[in-house]
């Protein structure tokens, strides 16, 4: 019999590759004993990535979630691991050095054993501090090679990177095939090269099933010396997710490897609980298309972990495009047509922005840039006319060194806008901030928490943490779930016949409420009234739970938003006056000039700056931070 291969259940990524959310802490602690009972996992991915942000969106405390979710695995002797984004920590934008250092201390104290660190640009400079901080905190430092397929990303490129990481002190190497587009033979060569020089370094392979390569890739990397294989399980395996445990175990057993046996009774228990969680609310955010294999993904190379949220976002993007098409008497676009346009535009954009590996956050940046190009061009505007600040930071080198050269058109646009390229260490752009957040918490009379975990959470996710603390996040989450459940069930009451109360015909039309419905949501014992709207809400009255900022002078009845010209939202998302809690927001009465940043619309995990197209005095701010906005909603007025 050949050597032993161990399995890791990527439970966190299973959910985030399928849809928008992960289970709540109560659901996680229910399923943990059954996962342990399966008896086949050496490791479980418990947190990291978007896990903490999702907890905050629920209105749950992510620190409690991580502590309670990791505890039973520790007691069973199963290692836990998290995904971290090096310079970006647990978010989509760079993190100050002192916050990064606290990050590993907090997660180790909460029960996470292994830090799987990756840089979306494969810039070793961004990973080096994570190795040092993870090991200082007592964690195993597992460093990732972000696999993609391009003229630049060769076997030699990845072998050299692995050697550099091991030299810096990495305890393990992860082959992170996040899009599943790594070619099996090449992946085997990379693993063989690592093991030839460092047989003592454990190698773990992570892949996604979508394009169809990954089962062959698993066999190749195992034949080359891989030690651990990441797996998923039904009903969330395959599609944008991962190869199923049962398939991988059977294949490797047939190949002569020693693999753990599976307690099938416990397997079915976990499978049943996952389905129960989907039926509760998580399935409302999972597109059925995400359960399908899709060889179209070989071309754009977009990762499985992003495709779950992408399909959900595309529904809103399609609605925006078709509203514009209706307005301009153009034919409606289907979701498949939009998807093909997006994939074609990704293929155009990716080489022109220097071939960043398509992994978080840079896969989102490339996808968002491509999608914005498609949406702007559909409206008759120019390509590259809307580039978010975080994407500019990637282009300019502030997030790390791009693998390839930029296209002349991108360089010319940067120069035309007066933007400067950066050649130094990316971490130098982001000064320490813990003292600032500690002071803010003291002013708000908030506790910094056990092991400073609340301080860490606030510094890592300022806007989301404030929404959690205020109760706003839970209100919005519960209202959104209620809306989606009502839509799924048709809010489905038969339409009463106009003439007589005769029985409805067999082909009765199912209708949803035509007006917003008021509901009461309980948050920690406090009742909030919220309005849930169904279908097209254009022209429908709204009742946000946070009042809009008033104008400095009484507005005429015809223009309640304030006197002057309207500043419109360029896209659908959430409105924020600032990106960080310590930034200075624009306020009523401020004088602004053309080109000044007025506010942000957060969409598709990036903050898109809204700049003044004309100068003047701000007379009204029409929304509160965190409010949902649609394209062309009035954000503020300037006179």
Automatic annotation (TrEMBL):
- Top-rank taxon, per record: Bacteria
PROSITE patterns recorded for this chain?
A: BIOTIN (PS00188), BIOTINYL_LIPOYL (PS50968), PYR_CT (PS50991)
- Gene Ontology MF terms in the entry: pyruvate carboxylase activity
Q: Which UniProt keywords apply?
A: Biotin
Q: Which InterPro entries match?
A: Aldolase_TIM, Biotin_BS, Biotin_Carboxyl_Carrier/Decarb, Biotin_lipoyl, Carboxylase_cons_dom, PYR_CT, Single_hybrid_motif
Question: Residues in domain Pyruvate carboxyltransferase?
Answer: 4-268
Q: Where is the Lipoyl-binding domain?
A: 550-639
Q: Name one Pfam family in it.
A: PYC_OADA
Q: Which protein is depicted? A: Oxaloacetate decarboxylase
UniProt organism field = Parabacteroides acidifaciens
């Amino acid at each position: 019999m050949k050597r032993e291969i161990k399995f890791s259940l990527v439970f966190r990524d299973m959910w985030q590759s399928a849809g928008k959310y992960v289970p709540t802490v109560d659901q996680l602690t229910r399923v943990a004993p059954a996962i342990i009972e399966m008896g086949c996992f050496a490791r479980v991915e418990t947190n990291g990535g978007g896990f903490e942000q999702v907890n905050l969106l629920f209105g749950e405390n992510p620190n409690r979630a991580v502590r309670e979710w990791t505890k039973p695995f520790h007691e069973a002797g199963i290692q836990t691991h998290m995904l971290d984004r090096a310079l970006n920590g647990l978010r989509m934008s760079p993190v100050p050095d002192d916050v990064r250092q606290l990050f590993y201390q907090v997660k180790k104290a909460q029960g996470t054993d292994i830090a799987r660190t990756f840089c979306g640009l494969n810039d070793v400079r961004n990973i080096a501090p994570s190795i040092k901080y993870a090991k200082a905190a007592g964690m195993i430092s597992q460093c990732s090679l972000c696999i993609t397929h391009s003229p630049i990303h060769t076997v030699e490129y990845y072998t050299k990177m692995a050697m550099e990481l091991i030299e810096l002190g990495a305890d393990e190497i992860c082959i992170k095939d996040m899009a599943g587009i790594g070619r099996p033979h090449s992946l085997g060569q990379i693993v063989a090269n690592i093991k030839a020089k460092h047989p003592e370094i454990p190698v773990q392979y992570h892949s996604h099933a979508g394009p169809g390569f990954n089962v062959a890739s698993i066999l190749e990397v195992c034949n080359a010396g891989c030690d651990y294989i990441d797996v998923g399980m039904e009903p969330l395996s395959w599609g944008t997710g991962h190869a199923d445990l049962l398939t991988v175990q059977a294949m490797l057993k047939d190949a002569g490897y020693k693999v753990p046996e599976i307690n099938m009774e416990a397997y079915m228990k976990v499978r049943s609980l996952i389905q129960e969680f989907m039926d509760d609310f998580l399935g409302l955010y999972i597109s059925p298309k995400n359960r399908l294999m899709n060889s179209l993904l070989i071309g754009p190379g977009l990762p499985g972990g992003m495709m779950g949220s992408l399909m959900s976002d595309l529904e809103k993007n399609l609605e925006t495009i078709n509203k514009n098409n209706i307005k301009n008497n153009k034919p409606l676009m289907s979701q498949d047509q939009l998807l093909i346009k997006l994939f074609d535009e990704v293929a155009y954009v990716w080489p022109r922005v220097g071939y960043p590996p398509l992994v978080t956050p840079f896969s989102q940046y490339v996808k968002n840039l491509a999608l914005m190009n498609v949406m702007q061009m559909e409206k008759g505007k120019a390509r590259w006319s809307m580039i978010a600040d975080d994407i500019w930071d990637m282009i300019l080198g502030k997030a790390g060194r791009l693998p390839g050269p930029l296209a002349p058109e991108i360089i010319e646009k940067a120069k035309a806008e007066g933007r400067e390229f950066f050649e130094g260490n990316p971490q130098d752009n982001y000064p320490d901030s813990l003292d600032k957040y500690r002071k803010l918490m003291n002013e708000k009379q908030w506790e910094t928490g056990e092991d400073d975990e609340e301080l860490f959470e606030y510094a890592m996710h300022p806007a989301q943490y404030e929404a959690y603390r205020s109760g706003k996040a839970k209100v919005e989450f519960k209202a959104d779930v209620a809306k989606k459940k009502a839509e799924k069930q048709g809010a489905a009451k038969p339409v009463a016949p106009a003439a007589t109360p005769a029985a409805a015909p067999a082909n009765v039309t199912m209708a949803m409420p035509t007006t917003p419905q008021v509901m009461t949501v309980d948050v920690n014992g406090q009742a909030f009234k919220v309005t849930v709207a169904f279908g097209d809400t254009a022209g429908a009255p709204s009742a946000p739970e946070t009042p809009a900022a008033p104008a400095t002078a009484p507005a005429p009845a015809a223009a309640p938003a304030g006197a002057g010209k309207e500043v419109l939202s360029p896209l659908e998302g959430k409105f924020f006056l600032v990106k960080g809690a310590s930034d200075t927001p624009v306020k009523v009465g401020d004088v602004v000039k053309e080109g000044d940043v007025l506010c942000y619309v957060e969409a598709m995990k990036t903050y898109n700056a809204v700049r003044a197209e004309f100068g003047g005095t701000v007379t009204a701010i029409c929304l509160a931070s965190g409010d949902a906005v649609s394209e062309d909603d009035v954000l503020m007025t300037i006179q």
